[in-house]
Amino acid sequence: MSVIILGIESSCDETSASVVKDGYVISNYIANQTIHEKYGGVVPELASRAHQQNIIPVVDIALKEAGVELNQISAIAFTRGPGLLGALLVGTSFAKGLALSLNIPIIDVNHLQAHILVHFIKKDTSDFQMPKFPMLCLLVSGGHTQLVLIEDFLKMEIIGQTIDDAAGEAFDKCAKIMGLDYPGGPIVDKLAQAGDPTAFKFAKPKVDGLDFSFSGLKTSFLYFLRDRLQEDHNFIENNRESLCSSLQKSIIDILIDKTKKAIKQTGVTSFGIAGGVSANSELRKAVQALGKELKLDVYIPELSLTTDNAAMVAIAGYYKFLNNEFADHGLAPLARMPF
Ligand code: KG4
Ligand code: ZN
Asked: Is the confidence at residue 86, as pLDDT, over 90?
């Protein structure tokens, strides 16, 4: 009999539902909450309210697109954390209620593990290859920047992480300094295409081991602009593309530098990227180049699976289902959640 998992994601500002059947994604519907744009960041209260409004139609669309009836679902997987508590509460409560009414199990999923598990979604294409263990994954999102060693589907270890801001945060905060909208990452990516990545240089962090730091870069970017604006009030406008391009290069250099170190240290031959920042076009190119240089099997997620989505939650749920790892109805969402 087929294993059909309904996945639900509501940890931040995307309400998403997905159906995974026997490890294949058959639907993945995402409702983006545009309301936060005008506030320059996610407003937690507004996020939970929007999740409440979205969750039923989103689940309905995901089931319809998959051609799956409620009574065919084997289990419901939901993001338990980390994330915004009020937002997580919507997905968690909905999953519990629906599972109870269908008399099927629930599966709690760690959002970060889910980002990584997109690499283990099965595909029908002839070139599809499941990554080999151990695999190293650079997880780069708005809230996290981590190097994760994956020993098995559900066995992962963080071997390096940011000691301050996340890579996505560096993109978003520097974009805000330039007066760009939220989230700034994709806007910087787009503007950078017409800029010169070598035009400006910013401070490089000095952090030991495999850890990252981005707060120094942000401060250096801020002070650099403050000084230049004193000489030329239109400095940002006149140099927007090259500022974006140079900033993006600085972030990518920091990421690639530590990744290279981690690959050499662990001796892995499979390497992947995941999380919202893995949508970045130059990071994707840099990772391909690194793969060639170090002779690695490189895994880059398709764009729809980089930022928050429920397919990643459903696939994590699928592997937990095969492992008989179910959740109790008494469990609560967690704003902070270890691996
Ligand atoms: O994984 P995600 O959707 O949410 C979190 O779990 O945080 O990541 C969102 C982050 C934001 O910081 C956003 O600016 C960044 O991913 N992002 C990008 C790009 N697309 C999204 N950063 C750089 N370039 C992109 N193309
Ligand atoms: Zn995420």
From this structure: yes
The answer as to whether 35 is a domain residue is yes
Q: What is the pTM of this model?
A: 0.96
Share of the chain above pLDDT 90, in %: 94
Give the SS3 label for residue 157: strand
| DSSP category for residue 45 | H
Q: Residue 288 falls within a domain, yes or no?
A: no
Q: How remote is the CA of residue 66 from the centroid of ligand 1, in Å?
A: 27
Q: Is 291 inside any structural domain?
A: no
Could you read off the pLDDT of 287-321 as tens digits, one per residue?
Answer: 999 999 999 999 999 999 999 999 999 999 999 99
Domain of 316, in residue numbers: 4-125+305-322
* Three-class DSSP category at 238: helix
Q: Tell me the CA–centroid distance for residue 338 and ligand 1, in Å.
A: 21
How many CA atoms, within 13 angstroms, populate the side-chain half-sphere of residue 177? 21
* Whether residue 211 sits in one domain with residue 120: no
Predicted pLDDT at 166: 97
Domain count, the chain: 2
Ligand nearest the Cα atom of residue 279: 1
Question: 89 alpha carbon to ligand 2 midpoint, in Å?
Answer: 16
Q: What's the one-letter identity of residue 46? A: L
Mean predicted confidence (pLDDT) in 251-266: 98
Provide the token pair at 103. 């008399």
Query: Which ligand is in closest contact with the Cα of 184?
Result: 1
Closest ligand 1 atom to residue 275 Cα is 1
For residues 108 and 82, membership in a common domain is answered with yes
Number of the ligand 1 atom closest to the C-alpha atom of 308: 3
